[in-house]
Amino acid sequence: MLKEILLQVEKPARYIGNEINMVVKEAENVDIRFAFCFPDVYEVGMSHLGLQILYYFLNRREDVYCERVFAPWHDMEEKMRELHIPLFALETGDELKKFDFVGFTLQYEMSYTNIVNMLDLAGIPIWSEERGEDDPIIIAGGPCAYNPEPLADIIDIFYIGEGEVSYDELLDIYKENKKNGGTKEDFYEKALGVEGIYIPKYYDVEYKEDGTISRFAPNNEKAPAIIKKVIVKDMDNVFYPDKQLVPLIETVHDRVTLEVFRGCIRGCRFCQAGYVYRPVREKSTDRLLELADSLIENSGHEEISLISLSTGDYRGFKELAEQLIDKYSEDKIGISLPSLRIDAFSLDLMEKVQAVRKSGLTFAPEAGTQRLRDVINKGITEKEILDGCKLAFDGGWTRVKLYFMTGLPTETDEDLMGIVRLSDAIVNKFFEIPKEERKGRPISVTISSACFVPKPFTPFQWAAQSTVEEFGRKQRYVKHNITKKQVKYNYHEPELSSLEGVMARGDRRLAKVIVRAWELGAKFDSWSELFNYDAWLQAFEDTGVSREFYANRERSYDEILPWDHISIGVSKKFFIDEMERAKAGQVTPNCRRQCAHCGAASFGGGVCFE
Amino acid sequence: MNNNIKYRIEFTKTDRMIFIGHLDLLKLFQRSIRKAKLPIGYSWGYNPHQLITFALPLPLGMAGSGEIADIQLTRRMDTDEIKAALNGSLPHGISVLCVMEIEAGALGCAAAVAWGDYCVTLDKKYDDFEETVNNVLEKKEIYIERTVKKKTKTVDIRPLIRSIHVDNSGDVTEFNCNIATGSQGNLKPDVLIEYIFSLMGEVPDLLKTDILRGTLYTEEEGVLLPLCPEEKFI
Ligand code: SF4
């Protein structure tokens, strides 16, 4: 029967597993079955490094079998619903109900409807309190878990921090409890003692008349008042897989990935990743070279990618890059170096590793004027960008991509105009090259402009987000002022960013909006062809929840924020200081230049102790 | 031209692997060859690729028990060693049955392939199936309409059929056939099944039909020779 439906859907290989390096175990012979769910399609989920790490990390235990589950594309979902086929895991094909744990990774807010949909497809009750002893335990982690509240009534357990730290302890407790015939409740109570574990039902929240939170407190004496994230201290000795799943169909990032370090020294004030992964912790060059060898050997991939938030900030970057090139160019293994700053060295490097495709160069100024770049603490100057472009043009690159955001705090039309001016300046830079040397090559500058979404655990967590209408006006303003034909302007749909803005800083009252939107047909919201804005508008109306309250309202520093019981190790005081510095246009140096005493040194490792 | 040694590989594509398409299969082989550390030869040029060619893509959903590919290695290796290395790298559902060295000047598999065995299992038992097939085989010519690139042509498919053997003894109808499979002449088994059904006044449910492509042959002076003749009778 499965064959019949697989032949009627797009890309059937999404649903068959069976990749090189898939883990095969006898499901009957393990104590714990764990379904790792990625709430998006296979090609997106398989490109995600965290999945690859956690998959092998959990499977390294003989008593655990971790399998993968992805969101079926709508064509497959239709067939599954029609024929009553419950959502299944790729490895064994078993339905999710047979698992002990169903774990979701929360990579972006707009995947929440997919989580609801996947639970429903699995025949598992959506609301935590409606699930019984026989249902799996629903656990979730990942970057969006730092504000778990919108999903607090749906997810049973949140895991706050890096998976390698507490999962062993949690699973041991589960196994022990299961063996002793304990209930779920028994397990949850014991799990409260595990670092990084947040179980929402043991906390109560009360609201003021104006809708803000008046009180948030544990209702169980074992529940910690503050849940602090757990992170790996020693990156060299922590588990890292020596192989990777090699997909049978093309995925978004089709290559083996080498994680160089976690965290980011920069402290851009809009960037949640830059704060929640603090402090920076590096792997040693020797360890990385050793891992690169085994990854390539065990996967057969033709490309290896160095991954981090800002790879050029790795202290041993030059040595690592040169050694990798030395080692692998003969075997025709490509090296991809995303997120590099453009300078003479990196251009030379790119020349070496990407000889084949002289694709575009990417800069992320994020804001159009120096003033606003100072506000957001984006340490890149116009001169640096123009010098980088000059070098690139001389080296034969002619396509430049620029990333900007609109709607940043304190932004004026002058800053928007700066986007246009900067793009023009790049085009002019190109035409400074003597005509003979340009050889008729065309230049193109593509502006990609996103809508700013204020995120928890950033200095801008108190800021108001622009409304859909304001975003629209800003985008039109930029577009209207572009006169050069070499400059192309792409912009994100503000509707989606606006909903993201609601979810990102949402509280427990949002779950009913998510579920209502799903009932009205919302899913795969981040796929523009499936995004159903009307369903969301209707859902807010039906539930009487105000979007403006969450997205477009400026908070005061003394308001209890929905995520205040979660600690990322960076203090609230630091964020307040940073917000004030932002308003004053003062930049804060990066961690290596000068420690700003954010609080993350409390983890006892990484850049704070270099 | 080059000093590469050419090898012919016979392999299966079954189970879940019937759901991956031809380009994905090519990529899978490239990665498995790399993982197996075979000294694969590369093409010259700006964007070098591995020297590997397949006889004929297998349609999505169809299984194969005797698929053929040719590869070029930069040094001579024991064929059993190549087979073991590849089988150690390929996922379940693809396994190498035999590897043989072929002469430098021999015709490549894609040019050589001309006929193929197919084993078809229908969705249920059709009582008049055998009789219908016998009628088909008695015909001297069979003209059917085929649409290629939006143009409808009438073609004679009779020369593209060498044999059909029906087995109606089980719960469902099965048949084996040997039909033209290659660049010179090609008859898709689907087309043959549809034609036979049309004579019975029915339309086949192809989604419920299992098709396994078996041995692939080349033709020399009217004689069929398996493309990878070694270890054929085990
Ligand atoms: S404590 Fe200092 S060095 Fe450590 S992460 Fe915070 S700012 Fe950076």
In short:
Chain A contains 21 helices and 19 strands. Chain A has 610 residues and is an alpha/beta fold. A 6-stranded mixed sheet of chain A has the order 2-1-3-4-5-6, covered by helices on one side. Chain A has a 4-stranded parallel sheet with strand order 15-16-17-18.
Give your account of this protein's structure.
The complex is a heterodimer of chains A (610) and B (234). Chain A is an alpha/beta fold and 610 residues long. Helices cover 34% and strands 14% of the residues of chain A. Chain A has helices at residues 2-6, 42-45, 49-59, 74-82, 112-121, 163-179, 184-191, 272-276, 285-299, 317-328, 344-353, 370-375, 382-394, 413-431, 435-438, 468-481, 494-504, 511-519, 533-543, 547-551, 572-583; strands at 32-38, 64-70, 101-105, 137-141, 157-159, 197-198, 203-207, 213-218, 227-228, 256-259, 261-262, 281-282, 303-307, 334-336, 361-366, 399-406, 444-451, 487-491, 566-567. In chain A, the strands form six sheets. Chain A has a six-stranded mixed beta sheet with strand order 2-1-3-4-5-6, covered by helices on one side. Chain A has a four-stranded parallel beta sheet with strand order 15-16-17-18. In chain A, strand 7 (203-207) and strand 8 form a beta hairpin. Chain A is globular, with a radius of gyration of 24 Å. Chain B is an alpha+beta fold and 234 residues long. Chain B folds into two domains: 5-112, Alpha-Beta Plaits (2-Layer Sandwich), CATH 3.30.70; 115-226, no CATH class. Chain B has five helices and eleven strands, in the order βαββαβαβαββββαββ. Chain B has helices at 22-35, 79-89, 109-112, 129-138, 189-199; strands at 5-13, 52-54, 63-73, 96-102, 115-121, 143-148, 151-156, 161-167, 174-180, 210-220, 223-226. In chain B, the strands form two sheets. In chain B, strands 1, 2, 3, 4, 5, 8, 9, 10 and 11 form a nine-stranded mixed beta sheet that branches. In chain B, strands 6-7 form a two-stranded antiparallel ribbon. Chain A binds chain B through residues 3-4, 6-8, 12-13, 15-20, 22, 246, 248-250, 297-302, 331-332, 356, and chain B through 15-21, 24, 27-28, 30-36, 42, 46-48, 60-61, 89-93, 207-208. Bound molecules: iron/sulfur cluster. Iron/sulfur cluster binds at residues 278-279, 591, 595-598, 600-601, 607-608 of chain A. Residues 278-279, 591, 595-598, 600-601, 607-608 of chain A line the site of iron/sulfur cluster.
